[in-house]
Amino acid sequence: MSGNLEDMVPRLALVALDAVSHADLEARALPVLVPSLGDELARRALTGVFEAGRLEDEARSLREVAQLLAAARERITAEQELRSSNARLAVSERLTRLLLESAGEGLYAIDLEGRCTTANREAVRLLGYDDEHELLGHNMHRLAHHARPDGSPYPEEECRIFQAWREGRGIVCDDEVLFRRDGTSFPVEYRSYPIVVDGRIEGSVLTFFDITERRAAERELQQLHTDRRTTALTLHDNVVQALATASYAQALGEDEIGARALGQAMQAAQELVSQLLADDPIDGRTLVRADPSLSDGGAP
Amino acid sequence: VTHRLIIVDDAEDLRGLLVLAFGRDERLEVVADVGDGKQGVEAVHEHRPDLVLMDISMPVMDGLTATREIKSSYPDLLVAILTGYGDDRVAEEATRAGADAFLDKTTPLARLADVLSELARRG
């Protein structure tokens, strides 16, 4: 059967619609598919039919159109899946970034060469930089972990972070320092864990925070403890000395000195207690004498 | 044999009683008694005793510092620490300073004279 273009187009459109329906394509793909009929693919088929003017050629061309439509459908489905997968990935990346940023700690990740692959804002801030890009690609050990707290060099091969992830384990550390961009340092507590992808170590992630205030509080507590100990020892020395004096005076029959020493011993003992309790409140409960018959020590 | 002794203690009553007690003991002779570590070191230079009885907690110079100074000049001179700090850690510190004996002030007076005499006799 020979045909002109006007006859052919409606029939081709029907076949196309049938192919679309047969391919079980989603309705929203039609606006994409139908214009493509007028495009190169359909033109090739139409031209073939029109020029041959023969039934078998027409049939072959129609099969070609159907095949082309099926191929187009596959391509469109694949594109849609990719778009949807990209959208999911974008959401996942946004979520990851939110998680990175909402962690109150500094966080950065490094690759196998020790180069920074990501860093959150807190890490950037703690290390004294303005932007994540100032860290990305840099060797983090050389940038911020190159010396020990005493200032001596800390070679990369001795770095505990590297050592730990090379052995595939994590590490927690609170006796090292990190260096800021301006060369100053701060005491830090960090945790570092290897990043394992498909059973292979790809790098490690490090979370950290500044423990300057904690260190200061610890020193203050230590000082308080030392002061208290010195006070206790000195006052105890005074008490024992006064009692020894009283004892020696008694042995030597020096009653006057003995009586004076006992007075001093009592005074020293009182001073001992009041100085040691200087910072502690004394109330009715504290003043109740402990009852030795109560084994659990609780008040009745 | 009488052993020549210097007493270094800032507690005057106690020091007086020790002088009195040791004065009654024919084994010991108190050649000087002073109230701080610095005076103790000076008295050692002046009297060259056999033995020093040294308190720890004192003004001007503490007894451990004085012990170190005395031992650096006279390694063979005996130093016995007598203190109210009856604590092992303080005893260790005294040993590190070079003290030959560590006595607690709770030691009875009679026993004190015996220990010092024995220490001086063995030299």
Structure described in brief:
By secondary structure, chain A is α+β, with helices and mostly antiparallel strands. Chain A contains ten helices and five strands; from the N terminus they run ααααββαααβββααα.
Beta-strand content of chain B: 15-25%
The biggest beta sheet of chain B is recorded as: 5 strands, parallel
Number of helices of chain A: 10
Largest sheet properties of chain A: 5 strands, antiparallel
Structural class of the helices, strands and pairings of chain A? Answer: alpha+beta
The count of DSSP E runs of length 2 or more, i.e. the number of strands of chain A, is 5
The helix fraction of chain B, in percent, is: 40-55%
Give the termini separation of chain B.
12 Å
Shape of chain A: elongated
**Helix percentage range of chain A:** 55-70%
Q: Oligomeric form of this entry? A: heterodimer
> Which stretches of chain A of 5+ consecutive residues score pLDDT under 50?
20-38
What's the number of extended β-strand segments of chain B?
Answer: 5
Task: List segments of chain B where confidence is low: pLDDT < 50 over at least 5 consecutive residues.
Answer: none
What is the element string of chain A, with H for helices and E for strands? HHHHEEHHHEEEHHH
Radius of gyration of chain B: 13 Å
Q: How far apart, in Å, are the first and last alpha carbons of chain A?
A: 114 Å
**Overall average pLDDT of chain B:** 88
Biggest interface found: A-B, 20 and 22 residues
Spatial sequence of strands, sheet with the most strands of chain A: 2-1-5-4-3
How many alpha or pi helices of chain B?
Answer: 5
